[in-house]
Amino acid sequence: MGAVGCWGNRVVFITSDRCLLTFTDMNQKVSGRYTKHSIIGKKDYPEFTGPGNRSISFKILLNVNMGIRPSEIIDEIEEAVESGEVNYLIIGGRMIGKNKFCITSVSEAMDVVMGRGEIVQATLNVSMEEYV
């Protein structure tokens, strides 16, 4: 089994011959905070006031044919969002940033649903923000 990364113990990204739970299209935004001072007759003067919070977004494809139950993963992530859970985000054995992250939102697309409402495939769009 190959561990790709994790968000605490709540979500573990893995690849193996029996299970595939990973992400795609990961984007990270690192920013600084600036205050602008207005000067009459001149351009605004920006002043650096500190680092901004990092934000991360990525997609997760959940499919029963990849050895996972989409509804279980969806429930876990929804519970983490609604309870305000924070964890370190580790990808490839490297911690992202210096602080924990919270999931600020998740949007869910139920791509394939079978007869009794069983979710066969779903796509999640996850947004996280650094929690200081």
SSE inventory with pairings:
Layout: E1 2-7, E2 11-15, E3 20-21, E4 23-29, E5 32-37, E6 45-51, E7 55-63, H1 70-83, E8 86-87, E9 89-91, E10 94-95, E11 100-113, E12 119-131
Antiparallel strand pairs: 1-2, 1-9, 2-3, 4-7, 5-6, 7-12, 8-11, 9-10, 11-12
Task: Fill in the keyword field for this structure.
single chain; five-stranded antiparallel β-sheet
State the distance separating the first and last CA atoms.
Answer: 32 Å
Main sheet? 5 strands, antiparallel
- Please report the total strand number as a whole number: 12
Compute the CA-based radius of gyration.
19 Å
* Helix content percent band: 10-25%
Strand order of the largest sheet: 3-2-1-9-10
Number of helices: 1
Shape: elongated
* Residue-averaged pLDDT: 94
- Assembly type of the shown chains? single chain
Structural classification: mainly beta
Taken in chain order, the helices and strands follow as EEEEEEEHEEEEE
Beta fraction: over 45%
Low-confidence stretches: none
Provide an overview of this structure:
By secondary structure, the chain is mainly β. The chain is 11% helix and 58% strand. It has one helix and twelve strands, in the order βββββββαβββββ. It has a five-stranded antiparallel sheet. The radius of gyration is 19 Å and the shape is elongated. The two termini are 32 Å apart.
